[in-house]
Amino acid sequence: MSNPDLLYSDVETDLRASVRDLLTDRCEPSALLARVESAEPYDAKLWRTLSVELGLAGLPVPEELGGQGASARETALVLEELGRSVAPVPFLGSAVLATAALLGADTTHEPVAALLRRLASGEATGALAVPLSTAPGTAFPSAVAADADGRLTGTVRSVADGSAADVFVVPASGPDGPGLYAVAAAAASVTEPVPLDLTRRIADVTFTDAEATLLAGANGAPAALERALLTGAGLLASEQLGVAEWCLETTVAYVGGRYQFGRPVGSFQALKHRLADVWLELVAARAAARYAADALASGSDDTGVAVAVAQSYCSTVAVHAAEECVQLHGGIGMTWEHPAHLYLKRAKADQIALGTAGRHRSTLATLVDLPG
Amino acid sequence: MSESAVDAKELRERVAALLAAHDPATTDRLEFLRARFDAGLAWVHYPEGLGGLNAPRELQSVVDAELAAAGAPDNNPRRIGIGLGMAAPTVLRYGSDELKRRFLRPLWTGEEVWCQLFSEPGAGSDLAALGTRAVRDGDEWVVNGQKVWTSSAHTARWAILVTRTDPDVPKHAGMTYFVCDMTHPGVEVRPLRQITGEAEFNEVFLTDVRIPDAHRLGAVGEGWRVAQTTLMNERVAIGGNAMPREGGMLGKVAATWRERPELRTAELHDRLLTLWVETEAFRLAGMRLRQQLAVGSPGPEGSGMKLAFARLSQALSGLEVELLGDEGLRYDDWTMRRPELVDFTGREAGYRYLRAKGNSIEGGTSEILRNIIAERVLGLPSEPRADKDVAWKDLPR
């Protein structure tokens, strides 16, 4: 924690501008509302532009493995922008969780390198086959079993972006202990439950004697999974920051132009003070999210604390901002027509994703020696 | 102003020369501080001849570190915070050359303590409503009125004072700013006992206090603008300090938690951890704010740091009293004292809890700060104002 850089570099600011321009153009709220109830809840064309044309799927992947050779800091920035527009693309599942699991495995092992290349180039979309609610520090899952021939059987519920995946990265327990496997989506049965979060889908994935490729054995699989969960939890804070930012900006604009009692309702202190509090929470959320991204990027010894702080703080802030957004919009905030509910649903689902705030605080209690 | 910029290397040379000419081990403390001021090493961003060298402000840390390493005495900045943080920038900006030469050196060395005569019983959050009258009499002004919440008034030699000079114009237009001699016989200082039992502050009664016109800062009627300089510097001073992890109030509660396992409950545990997270997030926000300042792009984040600090201090100290259980029923000492220094994290938990209640009132209440954030940062419309175009004397009170 010697010298964290909590600002945005010029390169990061440029990256933000290009992603925001694209999303402003291609992820407009009314089109998004129409899409969430259609047969294509994911925007495959937008995902292709982001992943293939802009190369954002491979941001943290080294150049020799087909990526951009950037870091978790840049990935975090993209998540901020995707959060601001609740864009329906499988970035978290593929470019964050599945990719981090592969980067946490032995990348000199050819199946790992080959899959990384496919994900980084956008040629394939991945998903990490764990429930989205899984927190870092969780015991290695036993929902899927590998047999002696390396074939997988079992069901994993609530896999983030599972219905958009071409390939699953699957933690499974076999005769030799834990392992990390790749399974083609065609070899699995994927069903989509009705999700709370309309812009990030979850899938229940069943493997029945499915053909699989071993990516990491007992020595590497638990660490690779932990790396993925820690990276996901830390970077999700940036998405939560983006969600909260949109909620605050949209609400401020609304209360400034909505007249009741002959004045803009935003001139009443009862409302102003609530928005000032949300703004202040955003100031701290930005610092916490940047610190976590910087720690993940630099491999800091303080990463565990940074992630626990960022995830427990930012998830709370995003839910608060989204709830205030709905409330301070009054009746319009309760309508399906206004996009505020998409943000509330994302914020609430994100509160559960990769460990609840309370779960991260429990982790922190151990890390900073404040036992219960 | 046009001097070439002084760099860190030159400052180190000047520090070495000061130390060579005035060995801290054998030099009287005050003599050393005066020599440091005269060498331009007091506040390097101030002008030459007034304790500085027109150097970039961030180079002060170079000087402070070199002098501390050499065992040199400092000017005990916490004892003279109002002088350093509020009076000095205002005197520098609005004072005549003569006033700057007269006041700044003894202010910086601590030979003369300063206090601030701003708030009044009828003018708290609405400072511009203040009613202490100053009436011109030849080359002097005659001042009558009452000020309140004045720390250091009983030790101060000088005060910065805002008065009403024209009651017939709207409140912001009719104020004038002075330097007031606290030894004038018309100045009466009475301790104001607060909820902690001690009297950190005072009430100051001004009866026919005569102030020379030469001690006016800024033009007649410009007092509000001058006061803004003072208040801006106050808020910078409150929010801007670097803090280690678990510094301040959190460190106190965390230490109690670790030392006293028998006091722990599950409910207090989650509250403590929640506050730990929030305190750390705002510590990082402060770090980020300073990084923005260092690259020359200050954000509006500073407006919120005091607000966050107040809320967290109150919640943490309240939690500690509760955690202490039976001991939380006891208080260390209600004896009325007039402390020269205030330590928010000093004494025992009960004191800290009660003192922290002031954090959301002093230097701008949390409610006023939320208005400032909402209007100046978020751009929300202001409340309708009933007092904008009304002469001060006609305001309801």
UniProtKB/TrEMBL annotation, chain A:
<dbReference type="Pfam" id="PF00441">
    <property type="entry name" value="Acyl-CoA_dh_1"/>
</dbReference>
<keyword id="KW-0285">Flavoprotein</keyword>
<dbReference type="InterPro" id="IPR046373">
    <property type="entry name" value="Acyl-CoA_Oxase/DH_mid-dom_sf"/>
</dbReference>
<feature type="domain" description="Acyl-CoA dehydrogenase/oxidase C-terminal">
    <location>
        <begin position="220"/>
        <end position="365"/>
    </location>
</feature>
<dbReference type="InterPro" id="IPR009100">
    <property type="entry name" value="AcylCoA_DH/oxidase_NM_dom_sf"/>
</dbReference>
<keyword id="KW-0560">Oxidoreductase</keyword>
<dbReference type="InterPro" id="IPR037069">
    <property type="entry name" value="AcylCoA_DH/ox_N_sf"/>
</dbReference>
<dbReference type="InterPro" id="IPR013786">
    <property type="entry name" value="AcylCoA_DH/ox_N"/>
</dbReference>
<keyword id="KW-0274">FAD</keyword>
<comment type="similarity">
    <text>Belongs to the acyl-CoA dehydrogenase family.</text>
</comment>
<feature type="domain" description="Acyl-CoA dehydrogenase/oxidase N-terminal">
    <location>
        <begin position="12"/>
        <end position="123"/>
    </location>
</feature>
<dbReference type="InterPro" id="IPR009075">
    <property type="entry name" value="AcylCo_DH/oxidase_C"/>
</dbReference>
<dbReference type="Pfam" id="PF02771">
    <property type="entry name" value="Acyl-CoA_dh_N"/>
</dbReference>
<dbReference type="InterPro" id="IPR036250">
    <property type="entry name" value="AcylCo_DH-like_C"/>
</dbReference>
<protein>
    <submittedName>
        <fullName>Acyl-CoA dehydrogenase</fullName>
    </submittedName>
</protein>
Automatic annotation (TrEMBL), chain B:
<dbReference type="InterPro" id="IPR006091">
    <property type="entry name" value="Acyl-CoA_Oxase/DH_mid-dom"/>
</dbReference>
<dbReference type="InterPro" id="IPR009075">
    <property type="entry name" value="AcylCo_DH/oxidase_C"/>
</dbReference>
<comment type="similarity">
    <text>Belongs to the acyl-CoA dehydrogenase family.</text>
</comment>
<dbReference type="InterPro" id="IPR013786">
    <property type="entry name" value="AcylCoA_DH/ox_N"/>
</dbReference>
<feature type="domain" description="Acyl-CoA dehydrogenase/oxidase C-terminal">
    <location>
        <begin position="221"/>
        <end position="378"/>
    </location>
</feature>
<dbReference type="Pfam" id="PF02771">
    <property type="entry name" value="Acyl-CoA_dh_N"/>
</dbReference>
<keyword id="KW-0285">Flavoprotein</keyword>
<feature type="domain" description="Acyl-CoA dehydrogenase/oxidase N-terminal">
    <location>
        <begin position="12"/>
        <end position="111"/>
    </location>
</feature>
<feature type="domain" description="Acyl-CoA oxidase/dehydrogenase middle">
    <location>
        <begin position="115"/>
        <end position="209"/>
    </location>
</feature>
<keyword id="KW-0560">Oxidoreductase</keyword>
<dbReference type="InterPro" id="IPR052161">
    <property type="entry name" value="Mycobact_Acyl-CoA_DH"/>
</dbReference>
<dbReference type="InterPro" id="IPR036250">
    <property type="entry name" value="AcylCo_DH-like_C"/>
</dbReference>
<dbReference type="InterPro" id="IPR046373">
    <property type="entry name" value="Acyl-CoA_Oxase/DH_mid-dom_sf"/>
</dbReference>
<keyword id="KW-0274">FAD</keyword>
<dbReference type="Pfam" id="PF00441">
    <property type="entry name" value="Acyl-CoA_dh_1"/>
</dbReference>
<dbReference type="InterPro" id="IPR009100">
    <property type="entry name" value="AcylCoA_DH/oxidase_NM_dom_sf"/>
</dbReference>
<protein>
    <submittedName>
        <fullName>Acyl-CoA dehydrogenase</fullName>
    </submittedName>
</protein>
<dbReference type="InterPro" id="IPR037069">
    <property type="entry name" value="AcylCoA_DH/ox_N_sf"/>
</dbReference>
<dbReference type="Pfam" id="PF02770">
    <property type="entry name" value="Acyl-CoA_dh_M"/>
</dbReference>
